[in-house]
Amino acid sequence: QVRLVESGGGLVQPGGSLRLSCAPTGTISSPHVMGWLRPAPGKQRELVAYFTSGGTTNYADSVKGRFTISRDNAKNMLYLQMNSLKPEDTAVYLCSLGWDHNTWFAWGQGTQVTVSS
Predict the structure, then answer these.
(1) What is the spatial distance between Cα 105 and Cα 84, in angstroms, rounded to a whole number?
(2) pLDDT single digits (tens) 99-113
């Protein structure tokens, strides 16, 4: 019953910034974890950033210092501020909900982020 809709993706030059938003719809039980994932061709899905069950943030090494995850608990909204973007960041970014960072039960169709000069 959970539906997630991502927005904010687009084409940006290296070094640029984007802010992704995630809006859930329907009746949703609060997940233990909220995060952003990006599957890459021929690779395992990468967990870009997420909130732990304790409310702290974790980031993939590749995005540390550049990306910031945030949320609005009252609205169950999730955001990802992406700065200093690199071509390697090009991917479809999926807003995801889970019981923990290894157990995801809902995700959206994704929003495309393309970093290119």
Answers:
(1) 30
(2) 888 889 899 999 999
